[in-house]
Amino acid sequence: MKRVIYVLILAVIALTAKGQSEEAKSVLDKMSKTYKEMAGFEISFTQKIYSEAEVIERYTGSATVSKEKFFLKFREQHIYCDGKSLWTYLVESQELTITNFEPEEGAIDPTNIYDIYKEGFTYEYKRQDNINGELVHVIELISTNEYADFTNIFMYIGQKDSYLKAWDLIDFDGVKSGFEVSNFKPDQVYGPKFFEFDEKANPVQHKEDFRN
After folding, report:
1. CA distances from 108 to 85, 119, 129, 153 (A)
2. CA distance 153 to 169
3. β-bridge mates for residue 85, sequence order
4. Which residues of the chain have pLDDT under 50?
């Protein structure tokens, strides 16, 4: 009798986990579709660095994205990517580094945050929550890659619009950092040169080009 009860409990757990995974996938797929249908978008965000449950540092930044291209302004760096080349410009020292854009598996950048769940992660629907008065789905991504930068990612996805409102990252040392979107401009269109670094418009004291 005890064995039968034990088997039934395991079956219930398995069905619950499957249901959570399917619900999570539905929410994630809708989010991905929403962003992919846009020509481009722009976000302003705040990064929070935690020590246990306390926020010890805050940084602000912005990202402009169009398909595989992006422009990121964050912590005195301007990073341009046209999908092939990556320009990293240090504003204060006026140093420029250029490399081929070769994203690693599991690495997060502004162009793939809404698609990161599709490879190298399992996922689970955790709960509903509220961010700045908006109801969100909370989805946990669990890394299956031992070499990934993060073990867990918690995504907070708007129930009405499927926009990513915030996300928390937990690395292999258990250190947590959080990002919250403070402003979002969907359906933006950008010129072909917008995502390329302009040396005429930005003073460069030192440049290194490592492209093949």
Report:
1. 17, 12, 24, 11
2. 5
3. 100
4. 6-17
Q: Tell me how far apart the terminal alpha carbons of the chain are, to the nearest angstrom.
A: 68
**Residue 13: per-residue pLDDT:** 39
Taking alpha carbons only, the member of 107, 91, 102, 203 closest to residue 153 is: 107
Alpha-carbon distance of 145 to 38, in angstroms, equals 30
The answer to whether 153 touches 140, Cβ cutoff 8 Å, is: yes
Integer angstrom CA distances of residue 114 from 101, 158, 166: 19, 13, 11
Q: Which tens digits make up the pLDDT trace of 33-81?
A: 999 999 999 999 999 999 877 898 999 999 999 999 999 999 999 999 9
Alpha helices (H) along the chain: 2-36
| Dihedral sign from CA coordinates of 169, 19, 137, 45 | positive
Residues in the chain: 212
Residue 102: its H or E element: none
pLDDT of residue 2: 53
To which residue do tokens 């669990």 refer? Answer: 142
